[in-house]
Amino acid sequence: GWCPLSPAGAQTTQLLVKPPWTPAVLWDWVTLTRQGSGTSGATTWYKDGQRWWQGGPNHFIVTERGTYKCDRPGTGFSQSVKVLNDQLVLRVSARAVLEGDTVTLRCRG
């Protein structure tokens, strides 16, 4: 998955999504991995805007649809990742896409 670059010197919490396709769907066995500095025990995970798992691991396989993010003291919240449970999705690579790039779309179900 693609993680956006942060400004020089800034420390931020990032979420790595595997497999690196958007949207993420449950039937792909989506793994979310927290990246950033700090100790693993300080990670707080949120699901659908509510505190979901405090002191959780740095990564896990998603088993429920929802919108996930994590927080680390001193580095803040990650971007949100929405995981769907749809039967059919039109997908694109999660990497950054610029005008003029060739983009592969996949219809998956």
Strand content: 35-45%
Unreliable stretches, pLDDT < 50, 5 or more residues? 1-9
Main pleated-sheet profile: 6 strands, mixed
- Oligomer designation: single chain
Question: How does the overall form come out from the CA principal axes?
Answer: globular
The radius of gyration computed from the alpha-carbon positions, rounded to a whole number of angstroms, is: 15 Å
The counted number of beta strands is 12
Average predicted local confidence, pLDDT: 82
Query: How widely separated are the two ends?
Result: 20 Å
Which percent bin holds the helix content? under 10%
CATH class bucket: Mainly Beta
Whole-number count of domains: 1
In CATH terms, what is the architecture? Sandwich
**SS-based class:** mainly beta
What does this structure look like?
- By secondary structure, this protein is mostly beta strands.
- It has one domain: Immunoglobulins (Immunoglobulin-like, Sandwich), CATH 2.60.40.10.
- It has no helices and 12 strands.
- It has strands spanning 14-18, 21-22, 24-25, 31-35, 44-47, 50-54, 59-61, 66-72, 76-77, 81-84, 89-93, 106-108.
- The strands form 3 sheets. Strands 3, 5, 6, 8, 9 and 10 form a 6-stranded mixed beta sheet that branches.
- The radius of gyration is 15 Å and the shape is globular.
- The two termini are 20 Å apart.
- It comes from Ptilonorhynchus violaceus (Satin bowerbird).
